[in-house]
Write a structure and sequence with these properties.
It is an enzyme of class 2 (transferase). InterPro entries: Aminotrans_V_dom (IPR000192), Aminotrans_V_PyrdxlP_BS (IPR020578), Pser_aminoTfrase (IPR022278), PyrdxlP-dep_Trfase (IPR015424), PyrdxlP-dep_Trfase_major (IPR015421), PyrdxlP-dep_Trfase_small (IPR015422). Its cofactor is pyridoxal 5'-phosphate. Keywords: Amino-acid biosynthesis, Aminotransferase, Cytoplasm, Pyridoxal phosphate, Serine biosynthesis, Transferase. The chain folds into 2 domains: 241 residues, Aspartate Aminotransferase, domain 2 (3-Layer(aba) Sandwich); 103 residues, Aspartate Aminotransferase, domain 1 (Alpha-Beta Complex), CATH 3.90.1150. The chain is 35% helix and 16% strand. It contains 9 helices and 14 strands. A 7-stranded mixed beta sheet has the order 2-10-9-8-5-3-4, with helices on both faces. Strands 11-12-14 form a 3-stranded antiparallel beta sheet. Strands 1-13 form a two-stranded parallel ribbon. It is globular and about 60 Å long. The protein starts with a strand and ends with a helix. The model has no long low-confidence stretch (mean pLDDT 98). The structure holds pyridoxal-5'-phosphate.
Length: 358
């Protein structure tokens, strides 16, 4: 299938094949990794290797912890304010759409929030200019959504927040391009788009930020609990962490994050070009300067035509091109593991569809 699902999303075929080979008998142990104790040496290796590869591929400095947690990125919407908000110091947010909105909603239940910038008046069809983002000096942190999966918008660069820690939800674009981790206090991402299957969430956090979480916080929701126990405080989602490790090895084998970035740019250009050269038959949802390289959102003249597009695309082997149910329209998610060939096929299908219906 040409898999353009938004998440869970395509995984590299080589990774799936490798997992298949190792599925029943992991490393000659006579059992599956899924059947193994998370305290075993073999699992500890899996856990440590996945962490080490994350560090290597993103250039994560030594004063940051890499955690593998459960509960999805949605649990981080709550855990971040629980751990990082301080009395009398609001959490600031960049409101850019559905996912930022959910993060704000959870934080409001924990303490005071302020909106540092919002693109709501533009229907969230763009990311704010960096100059639009006003962060109060006393903010506990500034939270932004690196890539809005539903709207199809993405930050091209990140604000310099000085002494205020920058927190980024990179669920839908982590490892799609190089980043300077030093710019961030905390980065988090659910695995099920660019990193592996669902079930594990990666948190990269500067050590000093998790040293003073409120004493009243339940043990399980404290970052320092998981940091001290090397993400083995309780039973981890071991198979998901193993799969993340395989995906990270695959990224390394592709030449690392810079190569992936180039590959992704080539992939999405094929599709955006068809949109831009269609004379208005296809209309990109995001403003050009904010276009996502991961989730390409577009519309057509009528919902009937969009429905026909989805139906015919499915008949030709395309999966997941229907837009999110909250916003409608069409969306192609072109995460790291989506091959160039799928994007070529989609660009061709779009051009042919226009010829038939334009
Ligand atoms: N943040 C972003 C940007 C997302 O795209 C998603 C899921 O699609 C989430 C958060 C929520 O992730 P989860 O389902 O892992 O809680």
């Amino acid at each position: 299938a040409y898999n353009f699902n938004a998440g869970p999303a395509a995984l590299p075929l080589e990774v799936l094949q490798q997992a298949q080979e190792q599925f029943v008998d992991y490393q000659g142990a006579g059992m599956s990794l899924m059947e193994m104790s998370h305290r075993s040496n073999l699992y500890e290796q899996v856990n440590n290797e996945a962490q080490a590869l994350m560090r290597e591929l993103l250039g994560i400095p030594d004063n940051y912890k890499v955690l593998f947690l459960q509960g999805g990125a949605s649990q981080q919407f709550a855990m971040i304010p629980m751990n990082l908000m301080r009395e009398g110091r609001p959490a600031a947010f960049v409101q850019t759409g559905a996912w930022a909105g959910k993060a704000i909603k959870e934080a409001k239940l924990i303490g005071e929030t302020v909106i540092a910038a919002s693109t709501e008046s533009d229907n969230f069809n763009r990311m704010p200019e960096l100059s639009e983002i006003q962060v109060p000096d006393n903010a506990s942190y500034l939270h932004l959504t690196s890539n809005e999966t539903i709207g199809g918008t993405q930050f091209a660069e990140y604000p310099d927040t000085g002494a205020v820690p920058l927190v980024a939800d990179m669920s839908s674009d982590i490892l799609s391009r190089p980043i300077d981790v030093n710019q961030f206090g905390l980065i988090y991402a659910g695995a099920q788009k660019n990193l592996g299957p669902s079930g594990v969430t990666v948190v990269i956090v500067r050590e000093d930020l998790i040293a003073e979480s409120p004493k009243s916080l339940p043990v399980i929701f404290r970052y320092d609990t998981h940091a001290k126990q090397n993400s083995l405080y309780n039973t981890p989602p071991s198979f998901s962490v193993y799969m993340v490790g395989l995906v990270l090895k695959w990224i390394k084998s592709q030449g690392g994050v810079s190569q992936i970035q180039q590959y992704n740019a080539n992939k999405t250009k094929l599709i955006y070009d068809v949109i831009d050269q269609s004379g208005g038959f296809y209309k990109g949802v995001a403003q050009p300067g904010s276009r996502s390289v991961m989730n390409l959102t577009f519309r057509m003249q009528s919902e009937e035509l969009e429905k026909l597009f989805v139906k015919q695309s499915e008949q030709e082997g395309f999966v997941g091109l229907k837009g999110h149910r909250d916003v409608g329209g069409l969306r192609a998610s072109t995460y790291n593991a989506v091959p160039l060939e799928s994007c070529q096929a989609l660009a061709q299908f779009m051009a042919d569809f226009q010829k038939r219906n334009g």
